[in-house]
Description:
Elements: E1 2-9, H1 13-21, E2 33-38, E3 47-52, E4 58-66, E5 70-77, E6 80-91, E7 94-104, H2 108-135
Antiparallel strand pairs: 1-7, 2-3, 3-4, 4-5, 5-6, 6-7
Amino acid sequence: MKFSHTVKTNATPEQIWEIWVDVNNWQKWDTELEFASIEGDFTLYARGKLKPKNAPVSVFFISEFESKKSYTFTTQLPLCKLNVRRYLTVNQSGTFFTHEISFTGILSFLFSNLLGRKFQKVLPEVMDKLRKLAEERN
Length: 138
């Protein structure tokens, strides 16, 4: 399962990026998190922890990183990986940010059903909170 959601914003790409890399405050805009943290700087292969609501603490790592443009963090589930890719697009129409979620591995069908459908449902609300938070920084 793979899905994404894109939002247009009046915030600058830098304002979105600042919020994305502020892992300790992800729960301010991600309604599905109790907390998140990262060890050291937000760079390729950095490791962190997150605690989803109604789920155990998970370890993640930054599996792809292009400074101020995009990153992916990956969480290992039993026989499955959850990948969250976030990227910015700037063109004549404005600034857009996208969150793309995918499940890969032998049990991806199971986690897609258990987690994916809920993530897909709340993603627009989560991203709207992020947009508002970024635009308030103007």
